Amino acid sequence: MTFSSNVFETDYSTALIQGINLNYFTLKSNNLNCNVENGSGDLYLFEAGSTPINLDFDATNNWWGTNDSIEVADEIYDYFDNLQTGVVDYNPFLNEPDITAPVSPVCEFVKVDLGGGTIQFNWSRNKESDITGYRIYWDTLNSFSFSNFIDVGNDTTVTLSNLDFNKIYAITAHDNNSLTGGMPDQLNGFESWYTYVTTKVSTLLLHLTMLS
């Protein structure tokens, strides 16, 4: 069985895929996004089982969030870390995301309170070659939709006014097939799922606090 054209995203120090008899599966043409260390050691994306019998796993031709072979190898836990597991074969790997997969969520999204209802938003740029812009959403209707959004183009920072800093904000990335924004485009893979904002303390405000 082959899993292809998917997006896998995690920022936790647990295995993304694990189990026994992984030789029955292959993982190809997928984007493994935002897979970073979480402060407690390497992120183990794959555990190739608990015994060395028939457990090699084909994970070639995937995008691992980097084109550095050393960084890719560091993300994989297999025979070379534990002789009781099989080998994860990841070479060759993609040097950029596979754009046949759904659009990947933005990896980082932060807000800075500039005061007076003005908020600066900053985010990391998606690596897909077909990304045409980003949308910022606010005023949640439920766990999967918002009543307001704005398309902020293809930059990675924007300052917006007349907003409540304490509201919940989220961002998505989209390609040129995305027309309306929101759930229809997300289900079709033309727009990413939501990445919710985190708060970053303004350097200026921090300095003022220290001086007071």
For the biggest β-sheet, the strand order reads 13-10-9-16
Task: Give a quick account of the main beta sheet: strands, pairing sense, barrel closure.
Answer: 4 strands, mixed
**Helix share, percent:** under 10%
Number of strands: 16
Q: What is the residue-averaged pLDDT? A: 80
Percent of residues in beta strands? 25-35%
- Which segments are poorly predicted (pLDDT under 50) over 5 or more consecutive residues? 37-43, 202-212
Shape estimate: elongated
- Helix and strand content put the structural class at mainly beta
Number of helical segments with 4 or more residues:
3
Q: Tell me the Rg in angstroms.
A: 20 Å
Estimate nothing, just give the exact number of structural domains. 2
| First and last CA, distance | 63 Å
Query: Secondary-structure element sequence?
Result: EEEEEEEHEEEEEEEHEEH
Summarize the structure.
With 212 residues, the chain is mainly β. It contains 3 helices and 16 strands.
Q: What would you say this structure looks like, in words?
A:
It contains three helices and 16 strands. It has 212 residues and is mainly beta. The protein has two domains: 101 residues, no CATH class; 96 residues, Immunoglobulins (Immunoglobulin-like, Sandwich). The strands form six sheets. It has a four-stranded mixed beta sheet with strand order 13-10-9-16, with no helix packed on it. Strands 12-11-14-15 form a four-stranded antiparallel beta sheet, with no helix packed on it. The protein has a two-stranded parallel sheet with strand order 1-4.
